[in-house]
Structure formats: C-alpha cells, structure tokens
Automatic annotation (TrEMBL):
This is Uncharacterized protein. GO terms for molecular function: sphinganine-1-phosphate aldolase activity. Keywords: Lyase, Pyridoxal phosphate. The keyword Nucleotide-binding does not apply. One of its GO terms (biological process) is sphingolipid catabolic process. The keyword DNA damage does not apply. It comes from Allacma fusca. GO terms for cellular component: endoplasmic reticulum; membrane. Coiled coil: none annotated. PANTHER family: PTHR42735, SPHINGOSINE-1-PHOSPHATE LYASE 1. Its cofactor is pyridoxal 5'-phosphate. It comes from the Eukaryota.
C-alpha cells in the first residue's frame, strides 16, 4: 500500500469483485499489523478460544469446522470462486467495471432527482444512492421494486 498512514485495506470481494457472497479480503501494509486481527476469548464455556478472525469457523477460514446447510458451498468452493473471479476480471476489468458502476449510479441519481416526492440523501460520491420521501412510504416503494426484480438494500 502506497498511502502514508494506511495500515490495512478490507474489501468485500462479493460486492464489486463479482465473487461468491461471503468472500472478503483483508490486506495489511506490513505483517506486524496482522496480530491486531486475532481474536481471543479466555472465558468461553468450552475453554480458551483463539482464532485469526472473529468468525473463526466461517467458510474458507477453517474448512474442517464448517457446519453447512445441504447444498451450500464449502469453504474451498468460496475461495476458488473468489480467486477465479479476481483472475478473470484482472486489474483492467475491475477498472472498467468500476467505471460502469459509477456511471450507472450517476444516471440513477440524476433520474431520481427528477421524480416528484423523492429526495436524495447527501451527495453520492461513488455508487450508493440513498433516497427518501416525505410524500409516500419509501419502504413500500422498495418492496414493489424488490418484487419486480430490483436488488435494493432497505
């Protein structure tokens, strides 16, 4: 990492990385910072518990501890899916996808600003456009759009 003062970067690869849901990457500028990631619970009912993450039995971290639902991918599947999507898109692919995502968010924001009864929270900087309304129930709108196939966080 080349930014002064930045010691770590966390990214959810299942969002803009187009990797399987549940995958993330944590990068440290120096291995000396990695120890801050460890989690230790000394008074756990089963004895002392220590793991490299807060969720030590998550898929991909400790595959032998996974209790998974029938039909759900195991840890190795998530890791392989994440790795292959990163390799497939590559640096240039991610730059292009980011450009398209930000461009789409700008078009959505511009369109929403022209709809009576809808307002935008703040000035969206990248790709999250948060909307509200004083005229109608915004959650009802979200339900209708979700039922039409939109994928909204509400």
């Amino acid at each position: 990492m080349a930014v002064e003062g930045v010691t770590s970067i966390s990214t959810d690869t299942h969002k803009y990385g187009f990797a399987p849901k549940g995958t993330s990457v944590l990068l440290f500028s120096n291995k000396k910072f990695k120890h801050r990631q460890y989690f230790v619970q000394t008074n756990w009912p089963g004895g002392m518990y220590a793991t490299a993450t807060l969720a030590g039995s998550r898929p991909g971290v400790e595959p032998t501890l996974i209790t998974k639902a029938p039909g759900s991918p195991g840890g190795q599947t998530l890791i392989a899916g994440c790795w292959s999507s990163l390799l497939y898109f590559g640096f240039d692919g991610y730059v292009e996808m980011t450009r398209k995502i930000v461009s789409a968010a700008r078009r959505i924001e511009a369109g929403l600003r022209n709809i009576y009864g809808i307002y935008i929270f703040g000035e969206p900087q990248v790709s999250v456009v948060a909307i509200g309304s004083d005229v109608f129930d915004i959650y009802r709108l979200a339900d209708i759009l979700n039922n039409k196939g939109w994928n909204l966080n509400n």
